Amino acid sequence: MKRSLERNRVWIGLGGNLGDPTLNLKQAVSLLEEHLATELVLSPLYRSEPVGVREQPWFLNQVAYFDDNLQLGPVAILKLLKEIEIHMGRVPTVRFGPRLIDLDLLFYENWVWESANLVIPHPRFAQRSFVILPLMDLEPDLVDPRSGKSLSQIRRQGIGQFTQCVKVEET
Predict the structure, then answer these.
(1) Considering the entire predicted model, what is its pTM?
(2) In terms of DSSP H, where are the helices of the chain?
(3) Which of 35, 126, 147, 153 yields a CA-CA distance of 20 to 30 A from 136?
């Protein structure tokens, strides 16, 4: 089967609130760049209050994008994200609980995809200020292929339940 030469833009959410979150995000970015053989474009860092389990430290979050030059596809990229989480020492706990590192596949170009293990765009991205705000720093006119709305429209319309989120660093 001949593969397309098309390169798809991939958007990833990174976060964590255990150990040294700044160092953990840097390590995750380094591992991603190594495995993907490309440099990631990074948003500024954001500090955000926890969602769900409130009795835990605030999170440090960031969004990154890259072009899928290796033509891995979304399923292989999700597998890589989970392998990096395990490699870095993430241990499964309660849903929305504290974590050393969390890597989420947010968008794969303009695909809409649903399977048992993966939904693209990420099903809760529009409800997360710690995803919307860093995405907007990188590409405010990015369009959610499911709703047809830009990130700016989603934020302006107040879609979803936004938590406190503060930019902590310019990149």
Answers:
(1) 0.89
(2) 21-36, 74-87, 129-138, 151-156
(3) 35
